[in-house]
Amino acid sequence: MTNSVHERIKNRRKELKMSQTELANKVGLKPPAISQYESGVRKPSFEALRKLSFALKVSTEYLVSGLTQTQNQDQLANSDRVFLKIIHSLNAHDKEKLLEYAAFLATGRKIKVDLLFDSASDYADHLLKEKADGTLPIDLYSLAKEAGIKVLEDDLEEGEGLLIQGDHPIILLDQNIPFQARKKFTLATLIGHFLIPWHLKPNYISRKYRSKNEQEGITMGTSSLLTDEVEEMEAHKFASNLLIPSEELLKDPINQRATIEELKTIADTKYQVSLFSLLNRLVDFADDKYAVVQSQHSKIIKVYQGKRMLKSFDVEVDPRSKAAMFFCQPSEQEEVREGEVPANCWLLDAKENEIVYEQSIYNPKVGKVLTFLTLES
Questions:
Q1: Residue 139 gets which letter from DSSP?
Q2: Domains of the chain, first to last
Q3: Cα distance between residue 272 and residue 121, in whole Å
Q4: Residue 219: beta bridge partners?
Q5: Does the structure show a pLDDT above 90 at 210?
Q6: What pLDDT was estimated at residue 70?
Q7: 270-285 pLDDT, tens per residue?
Q8: Helix (H) or strand (E) holding 32
Q9: In this structure, what DSSP letter does residue 347 have?
Q10: 161: enclosing H helix or E strand
C-alpha cells in the first residue's frame, strides 16, 4: 500500500494511463505543479486535492489517507504484512493494548482507545451520538469538558488556537479572534485533533497566523481550504461534521434551489457557523448540484467544488458573472446579486449553452464576494 499523498497521486495517474500534462489540464493546473506533487517537493492544498480526486476518479479521503479506493491496492511491504498477521492473531483486548502502546511510543503519553473508526467524520458522528443532547447549536465547551479537555482563552501569537496534548489536555483560543463563528470552528477543529486517535503530535496549531488585514486591523489565520497538512484537513472535516450534523442538514432546504438569504439565516441561528462553512457542507452533501467560490479584488481566492471542475485560485472573475458586478459597482452595504449566467463563467468543463444559477453576496466590511452556484439539471 502506498503510504503518502504524492505516491497515491502518481500511482493512480499511471493506472489511468494519464500523462502529467493531461492530469494538469483536467484540474486546471500547470504540468510542473503535478510534477512537484508527485515528487513530494510540494504538497497539494485541500482545494487541489478535491480537484485531483475528481480527475483521478477516487475520493479525496483516499488521496489523504489511502482509504476507500475502489481499485486494487499496491502490495504491502513485508514488514507491514507480518505486522498485520500478528494483529489478526490477537484477541480484541490485546489489540486494544497494542494500539495504546503504539500511541505511547509515538507520544510518550497514555491514550485510551475505546472505539475505532476509519474517518474523521465517523468520530464526529460518534461524538454527536454519544455525548451531544441533540440541541443546536452544538455546545462545544460541554463536549470538550466531557472529553477531559480544559478550554482557555489568551493572547496567542502562533495562530487562532492551540491544542496541548497530555494527561491533562488544554485548548488555548486566541481571545482576539474577531468572529464568534470562526472561534467556534477553531475549537471544533482542535477537539477533532484530540479525539482522532492517529493524531499523535504533542501540539496542534489551528489557523496559523501568516497575514494581517491592515484596513480593518484584524489578524486572520490561514484558511482551512488552503492547508496542505493531512491531519489538519481531517480535523477540519471533523469540525464541519460536528457543527453541522448530517441528520440536521437533511432537514434544511438542500433539495430545492435554496436562497442565499435563507441559508445565511440558517447558518447564523441554527448552527452559529459562517455562511461559507454551511455552503461548503452543502457541497459535500450534494456535490453534483452545488459549488462555492470566494473572490477578492476581481480574482478567485478560494473554491470548494463538487463533481464539476471550477476555475482555479488567482484566476480573474469572469466579467459576465454576478460577482464581477461587485468589483465594478461596489455596494455600501451587504447585498445579494443573483441570476442565471453562462456555465463557463465558473466551470472549466462547461458544456455548450450550459447555464448555472449564481447567487453572490458581498460584505463591504470584509471586502470579499461569496458565490453559491446551483448547477441546473
A1: -
A2: 5-65 (1.10.260.40), 120-243 (1.10.10.2910), 246-375 (3.30.450)
A3: 19
A4: 212
A5: no
A6: 44
A7: 999 999 999 999 998 8
A8: helix 31-39
A9: B
A10: strand 159-164
Cα 356 off chain centre by: 24
| Of 377 and 363, more confident | 363
Kindly state the DSSP code that residue 310 receives in the 8-state scheme: B
Q: Let me know if 129 is exposed, middle or buried by CB neighbors in 10 A (0-12, 13-18, 19+).
A: exposed
Q: How many CA atoms lie within 13 A of 292 on its CB side?
A: 22
Helix, strand, coil percentages in the chain from 3-state DSSP, rounded to 5? 40, 20, 40
Q: Residue 323: which of 281, 350, 356, 354 has the closest Cα?
A: 356
For residue 195, what is its C-alpha cell? 479525539
Measured between alpha carbons, how far is 83 from 144 in angstroms, rounded to an integer?
34
Q: What is the pLDDT of residues 88-119, one digit of tens each?
A: 888 888 888 888 888 777 666 666 666 778 78
Are 42 and 30 spatial neighbours (Cβ–Cβ below 8 Å)?
A: no
Beta-bridge mates of residue 279: none
C-alpha cell at 287: 456535490
Residue/partner pairs of 283-287 with CB below 8 Å, 24 or more apart: 284/240, 285/246, 285/249, 285/254, 286/254, 286/255
Nearest to residue 55, comparing CAs of 375, 293, 307?
Answer: 307
